[in-house]
């Protein structure tokens, strides 16, 4: 027998439209909701269909299940009316004036779809002036995702947030939750100290008891020495608290004895990580043909593209590059006429370069390495001689100082940090290209020989991944190289790896997420814009997106930037 199945595509809309009209005419309504004397008629079936709260009320043994009137307490009538209308129409207007009361009422009535929409709306309204209030509101109503996002927003805009009226009204636990985070966007730790003191000073009589509990989260070893002496050491609350004075002494020891910093490592000596940022490679200076570059560009790994950024104040090739606290340092180099002792730093947050304290010695073709928040400028060339001298820079004091000399003179040397030791790798001593490697112990202020590489290399590319040192390319005195090797410090031995696809010297190398990138350089006949990457897992090289400019004798490092869609 033939069967026709009819499906009314407008059935649900027509039914709810009709039920809504009956409600507006008070037809077949079987319940009246009462809030502070205000009355609202509805249908139990509709309310129970959209609200587990009403479903439990009308299907249980509660008195309300048998009654035609229900009195509700601690609820806003206008919000209730809006939500009841929503159960009939599926449409609700959420705006900045009603979102909080709607969310509260929807939470009480267990109307999670409206509650979630309110949270979604609040996410779009986050601002430094209101995010702390939204954190508290989300916490009260167990909106976990909104709470997390609001908390991250506050940390991402910490400098602006602590200027808001809401900040000084926070509870102790709320302040501690913010300043104890390892992830926070602040220009310096001085900002965190000032935030703590401004919160305490708002109600000093009742809040000074929290000073040590909060100050222990401030990374005092990382504030500038001037700030430490002028603002921390002179603070009355700090001077009158023995535990705070201990933290001050810890900070002073860290700054006064940089060679012993490895002995004072704890969370207070680690810079906070940034939030809301993406990791990018920044390619700095270099040269091509007869031109030395001041131009820079960044590589967005996620988009696989290179983007120009601010140029340096000076042209530089054969420079050294280092990063501390997301500040990129361009050190020394060659400008086409002279070897340089000048140094400038790049702030990704503002896309600006600033000249800072110069090296004590002109250096091009130097190696650079970082340990214990100190930058080491290793060897190089001063315009007359290959150098064996080494200088150390402390960003906290903006000063360079000399440390122990290398055992060998090294120009076009590369530097790296492995297991808190600094390695000077290969180079050119004025007579031969070197395979030798030296290792520097910061505590002993002493260089010692390490196992030599398998090949002589100057101007090689060097990086460290998982306590393994990787070296690729360079020049052996006769040719630019493709060869690639790695060093295992536990075995003190070098192991050969698959060669690069292209010959490269004067390039630079960085590593991220299991990939090693070889960037720019010279192949023996021309400067390169090309980039290739090595998969540690696959043990193979692959092509990657080329830079916008050819760059030999380039410096490259990783930093974090806020990338706008």
UniProtKB/TrEMBL annotation:
GO molecular function annotations of the record: ubiquitin-like ligase-substrate adaptor activity
Domain BTB: start-end pairs: 29-96
UniProt cross-references to Gene3D superfamilies, sorted A to Z: 1.25.40.420, Kelch-type beta propeller (2.120.10.80), Potassium Channel Kv1.1, Chain A (3.30.710.10)
Keyword match Repeat: yes
Pfam family, one: Kelch_1
Keywords from the UniProt entry: Kelch repeat, Repeat
A cellular-component GO term for this protein: Cul3-RING ubiquitin ligase complex
Biological process according to GO: proteasome-mediated ubiquitin-dependent protein catabolic process; protein ubiquitination
Name this protein carries in UniProt: BTB domain-containing protein
Native species: Trichoplax adhaerens (Trichoplax reptans)
Lineage: Eukaryota, Metazoa, Placozoa, Uniplacotomia, Trichoplacea
């Amino acid at each position: 027998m033939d069967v026709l199945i009819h499906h009314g595509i407008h059935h649900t809309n027509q039914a709810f439209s009709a039920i809504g009209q009956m409600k507006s005419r008070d037809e077949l309504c079987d319940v009246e909701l009462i809030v502070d004397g205000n009355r609202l008629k509805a249908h139990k079936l509709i309310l129970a269909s959209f609200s587990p709260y009403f479903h439990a009320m009308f299907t249980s043994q509660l008195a309300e299940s048998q009654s035609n009137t229900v009195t509700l307490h601690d609820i806003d009538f206008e919000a209730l009316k809006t939500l009841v209308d929503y159960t009939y129409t599926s449409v609700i207007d959420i705006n900045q004036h009603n979102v909080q009361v709607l969310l509260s009422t929807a939470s009480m009535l267990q109307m999670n779809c409206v509650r979630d929409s309110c949270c979604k709306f609040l996410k779009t309204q986050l601002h430094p002036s209101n995010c702390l209030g939204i954190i508290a509101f989300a916490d009260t109503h167990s909106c976990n995702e909104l709470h997390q996002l609001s908390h991250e927003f506050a940390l991402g805009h910490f400098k602006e947030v602590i200027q808001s009226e809401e900040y000084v009204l926070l509870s102790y636990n709320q302040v501690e939750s913010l300043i104890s985070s390892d992830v926070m966007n602040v220009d310096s730790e001085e900002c965190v100290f000032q935030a703590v003191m401004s919160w305490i000073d708002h109600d000093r009589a009742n809040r000074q008891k929290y000073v040590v509990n909060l100050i222990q989260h401030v990374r005092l070893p990382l504030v500038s020495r001037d700030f430490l002496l002028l603002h921390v050491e002179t603070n009355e609350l700090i001077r009158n608290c023995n535990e705070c004075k201990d933290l001050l002494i810890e900070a002073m020891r860290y700054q006064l004895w940089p060679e012993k910093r490895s002995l004072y490592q704890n969370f207070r000596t680690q810079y906070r990580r940034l939030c809301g940022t993406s990791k990018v490679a920044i390619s700095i200076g270099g040269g091509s043909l007869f031109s030395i570059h001041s131009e820079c560009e960044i590589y967005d790994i996620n988009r696989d593209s290179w983007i120009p950024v601010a140029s340096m104040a000076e042209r530089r090739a054969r420079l050294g590059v280092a990063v501390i606290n997301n500040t990129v340092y361009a050190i020394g180099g060659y400008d086409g006429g002279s070897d340089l002792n000048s140094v400038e730093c790049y702030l990704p947050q503002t896309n600006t370069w600033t000249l800072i304290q110069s090296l004590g010695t002109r250096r091009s073709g130097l190696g650079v390495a970082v340990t214990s928040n100190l930058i080491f400028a290793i060897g190089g060339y001063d315009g007359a001689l290959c150098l064996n001298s080494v200088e150390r820079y402390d960003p906290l004091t903006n000063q360079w100082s000399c440390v122990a000399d290398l055992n060998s003179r090294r120009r076009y040397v590369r530097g790296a940090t492995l297991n808190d030791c600094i390695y000077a790798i290969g180079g050119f001593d004025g007579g031969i290209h070197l395979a030798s490697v030296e290792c520097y112990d910061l505590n002993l202020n002493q260089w010692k020989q390490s196992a030599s590489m398998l090949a002589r290399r100057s101007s090689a590319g060097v990086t460290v991944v998982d306590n393994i040192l990787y070296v690729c390319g360079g020049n052996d005195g006769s040719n630019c190289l493709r060869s690639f090797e790695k060093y295992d410090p536990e075995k003190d031995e070098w192991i050969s790896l698959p060669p690069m696809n292209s010959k490269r010297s004067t390039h630079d190398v960085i590593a991220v997420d299991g990939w090693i990138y070889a960037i720019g350089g010279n192949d023996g006949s021309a400067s390169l814009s090309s980039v290739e990457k090595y998969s540690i897992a696959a043990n193979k090289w692959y092509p990657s997106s080329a830079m916008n400019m050819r760059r030999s004798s380039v410096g490259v490092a990783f930093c974090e930037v806020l990338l706008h869609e």
